[in-house]
Amino acid sequence: MRKLETKTIVVASHNQGKIREIQDLIGPLGFTAKSAAELNFIEPKETGTTFEENATIKALASAQASGMPALSDDSGLVVDALGGDPGVYTADWAETSNGTRDFNMAMEKVEKALEKAGATKPEQRTARFVSVLCLAWPDGHTELFRGEVEGTVAWPPRGMQGFGYDPVFQPEGYDVTFGEMSAEEKHGWNIGKPQALSHRARAFKLFVETCLEA
């Protein structure tokens, strides 16, 4: 376990929604952060078969390119009735023929796959969002933090908040989707929650406890 000694880091991502969420999480702790996108770093190929492997690839690439510690996130939607898909290929399901990402299309793919699997009842549509954060240093040292939140796949999509698959993910114990929640509600800030709600906030909580707290 290595403590983070600096308040200047790189957010190792080109995904604007993810960058915004990570910056929202680290900002109150006094961090100064630029993203890999802002620094014009080339996106590394995500060749891993696990969230941990892909998070490590991204964090190490930004840490070594910048000479500073870098924090990455690899996350995805894991649907039980689909054998864990889209999982680590969550973003790939949104890829279009022209190289852009269309998450409305991706959500429809998930729904069609669930219908094909005969998963029409809520108890057949169980899923979880997984987030793995990797903090990497330029010397190659890494620390990994995994957060998960259970829920179900809702249809049709609801809400315009968040990004990605948020409008179809309804967390356990709630009657709204992540797409219908404010950032404060989604992450569990300032609403009396005993712990963070979102998968990314739960992983971030572990990061804070491990690398920042004395």
UniProtKB/TrEMBL annotation:
Substrate binds at residues 13-18, 75, 163-166, 186, 199-200. Signal peptide: none annotated. GO terms for molecular function: ITP diphosphatase activity. InterPro entries: dITP/XTP_pyrophosphatase, ITPase-like_fam, RdgB/HAM1. The keyword Secreted does not apply. It holds the Pfam family Ham1p_like. Binds 1 Mg(2+) ion per subunit. Mg(2+) binds at residue 74. Keywords: Hydrolase, Magnesium, Metal-binding, Nucleotide metabolism, Nucleotide-binding. The active site is at residue 74. Homodimer. Pyrophosphatase that catalyzes the hydrolysis of nucleoside triphosphates to their monophosphate derivatives, with a high preference for the non-canonical purine nucleotides XTP (xanthosine triphosphate), dITP (deoxyinosine triphosphate) and ITP. Seems to function as a house-cleaning enzyme that removes non-canonical purine nucleotides from the nucleotide pool, thus preventing their incorporation into DNA/RNA and avoiding chromosomal lesions. Belongs to the HAM1 NTPase family. PANTHER family: INOSINE TRIPHOSPHATE PYROPHOSPHATASE (PTHR11067:SF9), INOSINE TRIPHOSPHATE PYROPHOSPHATASE/HAM1 PROTEIN (PTHR11067). This is dITP/XTP pyrophosphatase. The lineage of its organism: Bacteria, Pseudomonadati, Pseudomonadota, Alphaproteobacteria, Hyphomicrobiales.
